[in-house]
Design a protein that fits this description.
It is built from nine helices and four strands, in the order ββααααβααβααα. The protein is mainly alpha-helical and 236 residues long. The radius of gyration is 19 Å and the shape is globular. The relative contact order is 0.14.
Amino acid sequence: MEQEHSGVKLTEEQLRFIKQLRLLAVPFRLVLGLTFFSLIAGGWGRFFSQLPGAVFALLFCAMVIIERLVQAPDVGGERKDRGSVVFLWVGFGMAYAAAIADYYWLRPHWAPWSWNVYWLAAGVGLYLVGQTIRVVAIRTLGRFFTISVRRHENHRVITEGPYRLVRHPAYSGLWLMAVGYVSLFASALVLAYFLLIGTGALLYRIRVEEKMLLETFGDEYRQYMKRTRRLVPWVL
């Protein structure tokens, strides 16, 4: 099987090699991401001295490693992203940063609520459920799942597994994971922000992706849309 990337045909061996290179970059992404979040908290020591920060770091590491292992390389096909991946990075990343800033710097001075272990348990639980859903969805899509929206050669509508019930289960999982991350820090106001801004970014991404799929598959995808929901079975 071959995929086209910038007019060049990539073989399965080349795609595997690209995936291995991406795995080698995992430690750098982990260090960069954790450094960024720890700086918001006031440094590595302060970030890891608090249980929410330590658990966040553990889940963040798990996410980066798992995603790199199950995702196909983000190459090949015709890119149709329209900046949606940037909206996701900003909408989700800003929510994580705001939750950390709230917990370590702002809330002790003004918030009427306090952190407790129930917030932590809820956050971990939501993350685990979301990550499980996302992994199943990504593996079901296989090479058709990429970070940016792409139209591949031999692209087809996937209706197996979780895609029998919802059109974008990988995004459903991602949304639950994000709510879990924010919940770790008991940040009710930031959670409200994420439900508005983060969900809006996700819905924009879905709109971009479905526009590409409708252009590609026409009535086949339109009929699929009629019998499924975007994110939550029978609801949304």
